[in-house]
Amino acid sequence: EVQLVESGGASVQAGGSLRLSCACSGFTFRDYTVAWFRQAPGKEREGISFVTFNDDSTYNIDPRFTISSDINTNTVYLQMNDLKPEDTAVYYCAADPRGWSSAGFMQYWGKGTLVTVSS
């Protein structure tokens, strides 16, 4: 059974940094793409970063964000720097063997972790 568990969400002030974690289980990294999405209040879900392990490709929508992984612990991270109030959202980890879907059509999802950025 594929499971994705996010952690690391918190309330921070603008300009601060956070590192989110996604603990992955039930699948082999090299066969999947793991991605981060976010959904702000009243807005559509937005894809912000992904890593595809079979070709080591990564994507980050914003240079303030960096995705990384630790294959020894099956964890994918999202480092977020210089946070802004508009980054306030629930951040979700998602995984899919078919690859990245910017529209959010990923097969497996975590329950999310809340990031709140105050000005």
Give descriptors for this structure.
mainly beta, 11 strands, globular, 119 residues
Q: Could you characterize what this model shows?
A:
This protein is mainly β. The chain has no helices and 11 strands. The strands form 2 sheets. Strands 2, 4, 5, 6, 9, 10 and 11 form a 7-stranded mixed beta sheet that branches. Strands 1-3-8-7 form a 4-stranded antiparallel beta sheet, with no helix packed on it. A hairpin with a 6-residue loop joins strand 4 and strand 5. It starts with a strand and ends with a strand. The mean pLDDT is 94.
Q: What does the radius of gyration come to?
A: 13 Å
Mean of all residue-level pLDDT scores: 94
- The helix fraction, in percent, is under 10%
What is the succession of H and E elements? EEEEEEEEEEE
The coarse silhouette is globular
Distance between the termini: 40 Å
Which regions contain 5 or more consecutive residues with pLDDT less than 50? none
State the helix count.
0
Structural class: mainly beta
Question: What's the topology here?
Answer:
Layout (H helix, E strand, L loop, with lengths): L2 E5 L3 E3 L4 E8 L7 E7 L6 E7 L4 E4 L4 E6 L4 E6 L8 E8 L11 E2 L3 E6 L1
Parallel strand pairs: 2-11
Antiparallel strand pairs: 1-3, 3-8, 4-5, 4-9, 5-6, 7-8, 9-10, 9-11
Short description:
By secondary structure, this protein is an all-beta fold. It contains no helices and eleven strands. Strands 2, 4, 5, 6, 9, 10 and 11 form a seven-stranded mixed sheet that branches.
